[in-house]
Amino acid sequence: MIQLMAIPVMKETDPYLKAFDGFEAQAKQPAWVFPMRKAGIARFAELGFPTLQKEDWRFTNVAPIARLPFKPVLQASSNSLTPEAIADFTFGKLAASRLVFVDGHYVAELSASAGPQPQGVIISSLAAALAGDSGLIKDHLARHAQGEDNPFVALNAAFFQDGGFVYVPAGKRVEAPVHLLFISTAEEAGVTAHPRNLILAEKGSAVTVLESYVSLAEASYFTNAVTEMILGEGAAVEHVKFQDEGRNAYHVAAIHAHLGRGSNFIAHSIATGARLSRNNILTTLAGERVECVLNGLYLTRGDQLADHHMVVEHAQPHCNSHEYYNGILDGHSKGVFHGRILVRRAAQKTDAKQTNKNLLLSEDATVDTKPQLEIYADDVKCTHGATIGQLNEESIFYLRARGLGADTARRMLIHAFAGEIIERVQHVPAREELDRLVWDRLEQHPRVGEKRSV
Fold first, then answer.
1. Lowest mean per-residue pLDDT among 48-62, 270-284, 381-395
2. What is the DSSP letter of 66?
């Protein structure tokens, strides 16, 4: 009898496990980081890439990411970029303390300072901070973003090398924004970066952080980013994330915010690029009287997919949260919104609102939206809603009755729809730049002024 030998089947996670062995051997970081890395790769191996059978991923197919060859960028390179070229990117002309990362690595000669900072403020690359006195980082890194149920967060923990580190001591205010600029220059498929950002705002401090992802590449590369924000009592942070990756790129990001008593957190997510983008946003209102506002705008066309998945956890009483997300979709593109407001039993007097509105410019564009309320307290005010449709003909008629042409009326309404989100950005120079960019992007859509047939 001939015995057939079983041929082992290669798993999608195997290339990552193999790469980790070599990466771990050459990584130069404090000893306390390695257990975190090992836990991350072990958890990633256990979870694997999420499939459409997973409830939280059933509208977003990440199989194309799993099929990419895994080519992490291990060394820094400016790739012939110049400081003058930085000004061409969004927020590149703003007066800011700017940290520039090329393919996931900090490049000092492309970065810039906004001048002297208040005593004790640290604005640095994470790798540089880890190489110095890393005690402050050790207390917070991966404390609130551990990747128990998110394989991409776990993968980031295993392979991150650099990112932004911002520390604002108690009572200090950083006047100029901090701009974390990530530029991809990938020339071949599968090039992967794992940026890791840590923002610490202590009691009574204030800072604005701009986090942007842009590209010079046409290849199918992958960005897997994690940003952790810890706000102390009474701290105020505005965070603007702008994702404008290449049209063949894949972008998966996690934002985890832990909000202390009386803090004020405003976050904006603007997604215009990448073939597939997914933003996982988890905010924990861990103290009383927290104010949390999450805004988002996604503009898609062609075969793009933009997915926002968020959980707002009310853990303490007397807190307010408001989420406003608008999408404008053209071509065969797809939008996904999954918003969950979780109100714990202790979180009495919660006031939470969640709204997702979508405007379809094409018969082939689709949206899957799922706002949710999960409430265990009995003295709360919580609302949620979602809309999907085309422009309101009554509004068009109103504008036409005042002398505007149909094309102009449609343009005005579409721009106003996007403007509902952009106008919520509090930092004026950033808001004005985003407003111009969104206007220009919308004007590139061939159907902005075109009436849809029904």
1. 381-395
2. H
**Which residues 6+ apart lie within 8 Å of 220 measured at CB?**
64, 68, 189, 190, 248, 249, 250, 275
CB 255 within 8 A of CB 227: yes
Residues 6+ apart with CB under 8 A from 334: 59, 300, 304, 305, 306, 365, 366, 367, 368
**Which residues on adjacent β-strands are paired with residue 72?**
192
Give strand pairing partners of 113. Answer: none
Max CA separation in the chain (angstroms) = 89
| pLDDT at position 400 | 55
Give the DSSP H/E element, type plus range, for residue 136.
Answer: helix 135-138
Task: Tell me how far apart the alpha carbons of residues 415 and 385 are, in angstroms, rounded to a whole number.
Answer: 22
CB-based burial label for 237 (10 Å; 0-12, 13-18, 19+): buried
Q: How far apart are CA 149 and CA 445, in angstroms?
A: 37
Mean pLDDT of 16-37: 85
Instruction: Report whether 338 contacts 308 (CB < 8 A).
Output: yes
In contact, 250 and 221? CB cutoff 8 Å: yes
Which pair of tokens denotes residue 227?
A: 């940003």
Give the Å distances, CA to CA, from 419 to 92, 213, 437: 22, 21, 11
CA distance 323 to 340: 10
What's the predicted TM-score (pTM) here?
A: 0.92
User: In 3-state terms, what secondary structure has residue 9?
Assistant: coil
pLDDT the model gives residue 297? 97
Question: Residue 416 — φ and ψ, nearest 5°?
Answer: -65, -35
- What's the pLDDT band for 4 if we cut at 50, 70, 90? very low
Among candidates 191, 342, 316, which has minimal Cα distance to 259?
316
Strands 97-102 and 105-106, by their bridges, are antiparallel
Task: Sort strands 291-300 and 122-125 into parallel, antiparallel or unpaired.
Answer: unpaired
Burial class (CB in 10 A: 0-12, 13-18, 19+), 406: middle
Q: How far apart are CA 352 and CA 375, in angstroms?
A: 11
Determine the Cα–Cα distance for residues 245 and 251; give it in Å rounded to an integer.
Answer: 7
pLDDT for residue 408: 61
How many angstroms separate the CA atoms of 29 and 59, rounded? Answer: 38
Q: How far apart are CA 93 and CA 421, in angstroms?
A: 22
